[in-house]
Amino acid sequence: MEQKEIIINAEDATAGRLASFAAKKALLGFNVVVLNSEKALIVGRKNVILAKYFHMRSLGKGAQKGPYFPSRPDMIMRRMIRGMLPWDRTRGREAFKRVYCFKAVPEKYQGKIKDAVKFEKTKALNYLTIKEIANTIRPQE
Predict the structure, then answer these.
(1) What is the pLDDT along the chain (141 residues), one digit of tens a residue?
(2) What's the whole-model pTM score?
C-alpha cells in the first residue's frame, strides 16, 4: 500500500494552526512534510513569546534529564506538532514518525512546492518567526 503524502508550505503561516492541521493528517495516516519551517509565525507580544520559550528551554536539569526542548527551527516546529498528538498512546507515537520538517526546501521537493498546502498570512501586527525565536533561545557558545 502506497503512503499518501501531504506537503505543507509553512511560509507566513500561523504555527499553531499549521501544527494542528499537520497532526490531524498524520493521525489519519498521511506522511506530512512541512517545508520552510523557520518562516512560520507565532502570534503574540514578542516579550511574552520569548519568555515562554526561554522558560521551556530552561526546564531540563542538565544533559541527563529532560524535558528536552530543541533550538533548531525545524525541530521546534516538529515539537509543536508533537504537542498536538496523543503522545502517550501508540497511535500518537506512530503518527509522529510520519512527520517531517525542513528549514528550507530540499531538492527532493523543489518541484512540488507549487502544489503544497498554503495557509493565509495572519493579519496580526505582533508576531515572531520561528527562526527569530530559535536564534534568540539558542545557547551561546
Answers:
(1) 457 999 999 999 999 999 999 999 999 999 999 999 999 999 999 999 999 998 888 887 666 777 788 889 999 999 999 999 999 999 999 999 999 999 999 999 998 888 888 888 888 889 999 999 999 988 665
(2) 0.89
Q: Nine-digit cell at 137? A: 533561545
Cα gap 101→119, rounded to integer Å? 16
What letters, b where the CB count within 10 A reaches 16 and e where it falls short, cover 36-50? bbbbbbbbeeeeebb
Assign domain 5-137 to its CATH superfamily.
Answer: Ribosomal protein L13 (3.90.1180.10)
Query: Could you identify the residue written with the cell 520561528?
Result: 130
Is the distance from CB of 132 to CB of 44 less than 8 angstroms?
no
CA distances from 122 to 80, 109, 113 (A): 18, 25, 20
Residues 129, 105, 84, 59, CA torsion sign: negative
Closest CA to 18 of 81, 98, 66: 81
